[in-house]
Amino acid sequence: MSGFRKSTAKYMYLAGCGMRRSSSIVSPDTRPVLYSYFYSSCSWRVRIALGLKKIPYELRPTSLVTTEANDSINCYTNEYRELNPMQQVPALQIDGQTLCDSVAIMHYLDETRPLHPLLPQDPHKRAKVREIVEIICSGIQPLQNRLVLSHLGKEKSREWAQHWISRGFRGLEQVLSLSSGKYCVGDEISMADCCLVPQVFNARRYKVTLDPYPTILQLDQNLATNETIRASHPHNQPDCPPKLANK
Fold it and tell me: Which pathway does UniProt place it in (predicted)?
């Protein structure tokens, strides 16, 4: 049985209210559908962005692990490949089309949904947000994602992840020490913050020593109090294993 047909659990995200079973508050014909894996930092970026913009959406858990036996769609099925040729998450069905890259999705949401802009109006600040997004999404996360680590084996994968995250954080710390206020760029949550929070989570997951990065730690602490970010946390997702849920 295919992953698409197997999965019957559908969830509705109401910004600031966490996960709920699908409701009729928003028409199923117009509600965006997010294919997301709880541990995916790329999916988390989009969950944060959707929440900040208060866009109700249907979440369809999509597993990146072939051995998982749950109600998740499996990204390695032929049907999911038709949706996302890269067989990765996230994928967002919105406005009659499908978008399959977290940064492209965030830009699209910002260009079509004006509530809570993810990019500042000031050109310099806007460029700085984009710089931070690229540092994380192009210079750090791809080097420690599960597809790369799966080729290294368990013994080498943590050391590899620690090395590349630490290397990236050294530069990111310097950038953020000059750009940050309460958040990554000034005092408004931006696309940069949508990317920073999941990356710090990954750093902790791989046991990276974070003491050398006080600015990153302070920003993560500031962002951790935001209700939308808390609701979007991996441990609050419907496909999170019970042993991790709500921790």
Answer: Amino-acid degradation; L-phenylalanine degradation; acetoacetate and fumarate from L-phenylalanine: step 5/6
